[in-house]
Amino acid sequence: MTPLETSAIDTEVVVVGAGYAGLTTAWRLADAGVDVVVLEAADRVGGRVFSQVTPSGVRVDHGGQWIGPSQRRFHALAARFGCRTFPTWETGRHAEIRADGTRVDYAGGAPDTGPGIEEYERVTALLDDLARTVDLEQPWSTPQFTEFDSLSAEDFFRAQTDDEDALARLALAIQGVWCAEPREISFFHVLFYLASGGGYEQLMETRGCAQDARFTDGADAVAHALAKSLGGRVRLGEPVLSLRQTAHGVEAHTGRTVVRARRAVVAVPPAVIERIAFAPALPVARRGWVRHSPMGRVAKVHAVYEEPFWRTAGRSGIATLYGDSPVGVVFDNSPEDASRGVLVAFVYGDRLDRWSAGTDTERRQGVLAALSAVAGPGAGRPIDYVEKIWPRTGWTVGGYECFLTPGGWTRHGRDGWREPAGLVHWAGTETASVWNGYIDGAISSGERAAAEVISALAAVGHLG
């Protein structure tokens, strides 16, 4: 042990990270009779899913918050632990605030007509066609894999259309889903992600799609239930500083504890993996994958009001904003009983870079101006105003998920995506084939990692 370490723990499997991936891994292992310890750097579980109560008593989700009908694993866990959901509010007219300040109210998924809409719909239909060719289990087997991965999303979009309004709509879609700019993300990764989630509409829309419902007690309620079921196996405030493979297994060092185990599962975002010193060093492919996987840039800002006043005016609170506004998308995030009104504003990518550099007052003024354009002047007078700027968050360093830069899949995907590195296995939503980037994907990745470990332990006679 290092001089600071005061205790040693022997177990069969050590799991690094207590987000949904790590907790699911541990839960599955424990259920199979495998002794497991979970080490979490933060003082809470849930990872990129985190809810908190505001001063006025409203619970808000700072990270991942929605669940869709086809996210079956998440639904199964929620049902298992009795965590209730309710439909996302979408009743009333949505708003589009265009670059020139024009406001357009509409019903349904998007305005029927407007600048760039026809070209936008043509290109997004093409995205769905191409996404249907993706091999989710062996992405490198996809037709035109190398060609698509050599392009950024912006390269592809500009090759398809020179309509700047359509390009702005496509850019907001990239920002909203990946918290990145079109120039930054591999076009193949966009196609893979669309295929993983069931198509463009599934990712973008509300009812029956990815934003269908929310959790009454916050989206981390299931994570807390999982952690409770694991009891003392979950150790908070224990950042893994190094992970060493030895002749006898693995050793995870946190600075105050060393955990010795037969196998390890690392269930943190790729962008966080470089904070851990591995011995021996990770394979070149895994290191390359990590370095091609930056975390998205996003802030969620909640403004709380005495009541959801926009509803009485026939407005849904859902909006998209173009132009100079720091805010890209707005949703009604009021509690199920509407005892308070809540609007949540999303600040993405380059907008976040500019907005986050402002003073507290400047940031607040920018967001409230956007909310006032969406919901009326009353939106400028909240009773609570809460920002969560994810790139400033200690152990997460961004949100909601990592994305692949051009060339990342081609150079490192086959051996670096989720292939174990000796006794070290990988979990996390970025390693999922279905609902990659979402909570459901994190859960499935934990199930896969647990199955890998159970098989490996059984193969050498260390199970059952």
Written description of the protein model:
This protein is of the alpha/beta class and 464 residues long. The chain folds into 3 domains: 173 residues, FAD/NAD(P)-binding domain, CATH 3.50.50.60; 128 residues, Alpha-Beta Complex (Polyamine Oxidase, Chain A, domain 2), CATH 3.90.660; 89 residues, Guanine Nucleotide Dissociation Inhibitor, domain 1, CATH 1.10.405.10. It is built from 16 helices and 22 strands. It has a 7-stranded mixed β-sheet with strand order 9-8-18-19-20-17-21. The mean pLDDT is 96.
Features:
7-stranded mixed sheet; FAD/NAD-bd_sf; Polyamine Oxidase, Chain A, domain 2; Flavin_MAO; FAD/NAD(P)-binding domain; Guanine Nucleotide Dissociation Inhibitor, domain 1; 464 residues; alpha/beta; single chain; FAD-dependent oxidoreductase; Flavin_amine_oxidase; oxidoreductase
How are the secondary structure elements laid out?
Layout: E1 7-10, E2 13-16, H1 20-31, E3 36-39, E4 51-53, E5 59-61, E6 66-67, H2 72-80, E7 85-87, E8 93-97, E9 103-106, H3 117-131, H4 145-149, H5 153-160, H6 164-178, H7 187-197, H8 200-204, E10 213-215, H9 221-230, E11 234-235, E12 242-245, E13 250-253, E14 257-261, E15 263-266, H10 270-273, E16 277-279, H11 284-291, E17 298-305, H12 309-312, E18 315-321, E19 329-332, E20 341-348, H13 349-356, H14 360-375, E21 384-389, H15 408-416, E22 424-426, H16 439-459
Parallel strand pairs: 1-14, 2-3, 2-15, 3-11, 8-18, 12-16, 15-22
Antiparallel strand pairs: 4-5, 6-10, 7-10, 8-9, 12-13, 13-14, 17-20, 17-21, 18-19, 19-20
Helix pairs in contact: 1-9, 1-16, 2-16, 3-6, 3-7, 5-6, 11-15
